[in-house]
Amino acid sequence: MSCSSDYVPQLRARGFRMTSQRLAILHVLRHEGVHLSPTEIYKKARIELPGLTEPTVYRTLEFLAENGLARSSYAGSGRLTYEIAEDEHHHVICRSCGNEIEVGHALLESLYQELETASGFKHIDSHVTFFGVCPGCQQDHKET
Amino acid sequence: MSCSSDYVPQLRARGFRMTSQRLAILHVLRHEGVHLSPTEIYKKARIELPGLTEPTVYRTLEFLAENGLARSSYAGSGRLTYEIAEDEHHHVICRSCGNEIEVGHALLESLYQELETASGFKHIDSHVTFFGVCPGCQQDHKET
DNA sequence: TTTGTTATTGTAAAAACTTGCAATAAGGAA
DNA sequence: TTCCTTATTGCAAGTTTTTACAATAACAAA
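Above: the input entities. Below: the structure tokens describing the complete assembly.
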């Protein structure tokens, strides 16, 4: 998995183009790991590519997510964040402290099957964010 | 289930107050049913209560959702919409045409159990929106 | 009633996000 | 290489959403 333009053929195959903007944004996503807001991504990518504008960042992130190169999910605040698309997983966010963990997709596999059966929909593959109360906050609650 | 201030005791019990703004917004949610954007709610509620402002609408919706009187979910566009909290359900949205269906919570019940076991989190109760391709669009796809 | 506490609202301004359209540049073909 | 097509970007302006703080008004208690 070379660091950068490994993605070019993926895009070209679908008639899309690789641009310096897309590369800069992918680069940020690759090297930051955690979930980033569009604004954070904009600020970091702008360092690599000074001319970059905000609308381009928003459009690019949406584009990358649609094409499977990035993945979007809703942060605790309800805002959309992005990360590089790697292994498929979901999130559980603590409603109380905002702490966030990942759970593998395996747990949801059978639900997705059932949903497809029950709804008639196909290709259900959304990333999902759940909300709950984490172990730490369950403790705190007892004291209060 | 009387139409309006049935909610008052619920709020007071938790130290909150019922206000004309909250009543107006609840009234809109009750009588519109479908998922409404904050802006739509603002416009409709303003007719009932002309002085109402947008920040109040946003804050009130968040407040109602936190307190179980309303429920929020992400529309296909990625924007947050609200509806009155009634029976618990989830949504599946068609990635292609935006068509949206409801699925009861029963299907997810056991997943939530597993998630709690696997993650150590408790009280997981999020409303979830899935994306897929609806029966109609599966047809269309074959032709194209 | 009247008063006091404080949850809630409005105001004003900023930040986040979107949209339409003209200019640019990626990359296939000549 | 150069040209052409058109995907993609930047620009400019709009809309949506958030924030801080002072003014207001619920409602419990006197």
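Note for the figure: The two ends of chain B are 49 Å apart (CA to CA).
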